[in-house]
Design brief:
single chain, mainly alpha
């Protein structure tokens, strides 16, 4: 597979299909957790799962930070023909992530009770949240490395193996989810154990890439350690915020919804937050699929090829976003009943909340892909600007202020407004990038 010469349409789909397949399976076993917990344990347990989401997202986002940051640098230097420098970035990203994973293992292991209280766990939700996090803590390094391994295996021209790891882990997780929660009656902890076993399998399959004849990844002595780590973090930080936002925004919404709307609204929001994770994963799958192609061609200065791949990716994202938005706008109650049984109050909340919130997904996909594209051509500042605005700055301000000025129901409008505002900026950055590199 030659990223600089092969037919672009074939290359695009050779990366897109496994990447989307991986994202789909990852999302399915996240959703399976939610569905099995909601149906098998109850709505309180489902709400508790939402409480744990920020802590899980920190683990996943850290793996993505060093996976995307390291792999983009690796691909760019491969495009210039410098294989040794490419492997230095791989080695350094791996070592740095291992050190951080150990630190997180220590923090979560000794501080999980305090962390759950900070996430908003009340006396009702705390026992469920603690039961779930017990198994996550045991396998924490695996959770950190699961995304990292998939990203680097894909970037090393082996997207099918990355998909196989996620697929096998996902199937095992889904089966064990059902077995542990229903026949064995292990509760929410059983769902967590099923998830961690699936992650272990995913990482093991990823490791097998190092023993295959397709492997070009080598551990070599890194140079210029601190400046290289800074480059890795600089390239990966927009993706970190894209993933971290799943947890950060969920945390803020949990606090505000409990404050202004109550437990029933939180249960409905837990459904929405799981849909956000699903759709975000699929959008991310498209973004990550084009990164090796674009970054390698960027290193070689092949801008016409970059323009064509970018165009195909945006068509894909727009179609996906339109379909996702339509599902919630047209069928809000059906979306919720997939996860849990609804009472009258929940049905009323879903009719408004799901319909309004799902407008988010069309602009969200475009913004997310723009961020990944800008990372791939080393426009880090612009990519980071998009990520910070949509994931931290504008969203935080809006979540806190909207209910004060526009009432409690305005909370459902926060993310559509934020994503539409950031979409304008994304269009400006894309136009600037095209003009700068003469690819319009």
């Amino acid at each position: 597979m030659d990223l600089l010469k092969d037919n672009l349409k074939k290359l695009y789909f050779r990366f897109l299909i496994p990447s989307l397949g991986s994202a789909m399976v990852m999302s399915i076993y996240t959703l399976t957790d939610a569905i099995v917990i909601g149906k098998g344990v109850g709505s309180d347990a489902l709400a508790a799962l939402s409480i744990t989401t920020p802590l899980l997202c920190i683990l996943m986002a850290t793996g993505i930070l060093f996976g995307v940051g390291g792999s983009v640098q690796m691909s760019v230097h491969r495009g210039t023909g410098n294989q040794k420098k490419a492997n230095r970035f791989f080695t350094l990203s791996f070592i740095t992530l291992a050190v951080i994973a150990l630190a997180l293992w220590f923090i979560y292991g000794f501080g999980i009770s305090t962390l759950l209280r900070l996430m908003g766990a009340n006396d009702t939700l705390y026992p469920y949240a603690m039961a779930y996090m017990k198994y996550i803590n045991i396998f924490l390094p695996v959770a950190v490395f699961s995304n990292y391994m998939a990203i680097f295996v894909r970037a090393d021209n082996n997207p099918n193996r990355a998909m196989a790891g996620v697929l096998l882990g996902g199937v095992v997780n889904i089966v064990l989810d059902i077995v542990f929660v229903f026949p064995l009656q292990m509760g929410i902890g059983g769902a967590a154990l099923a998830s961690t076993i699936g992650m272990v399998i995913q990482v093991v399959v990823g490791i097998s890439h190092f023993f295959s004849n397709k492997n070009n990844l080598r551990f070599i002595k890194p140079k210029h350690i601190f400046s290289s780590i800074w480059q890795i973090i600089g390239n990966g930080i927009p993706s970190f915020f894209n993933e971290f936002a799943n947890g950060f925004i969920v945390l803020l919404f949990n606090i505000q919804i409990l404050k202004y709307c109550g437990d029933s609204a939180l249960s409905v929001y837990s459904v929405i937050s799981n849909c956000v994770i699903l759709f975000n994963s699929l959008f991310t799958g498209v973004g990550q699929s084009i990164q090796p192609i674009i970054a390698t061609n960027y290193g070689a200065g092949r801008w016409e090829r970059i323009k064509k791949v970018k165009g195909m990716a945006f068509v894909t994202i727009i179609i996906m976003g339109a379909v996702f938005s339509a599902c919630g706008i047209l069928f809000p109650e059906k979306v919720c009943t997939v996860f849990m049984d609804l009472n009258k109050e929940m049905r009323d909340i879903a009719g408004l909340g799901v319909r309004v919130y799902f407008i988010t997904f069309l602009p969200m996909g475009i913004n997310l892909l723009t961020s990944y594209y800008l990372q791939s051509v080393l426009s880090v500042k612009e990519s980071l600007c998009i990520s910070l605005l949509r994931n931290v700055i504008l969203s935080s301000i809006a979540i806190i202020t909207f209910p004060l000025f526009f009432g409690k129901n305005s909370l459902w409008m926060v993310m559509p407004v934020v994503e539409l505002c950031v979409l304008l900026l994304s269009m400006i950055f894309l136009r600037k990038s095209g003009t700068k590199n003469n690819v319009n």
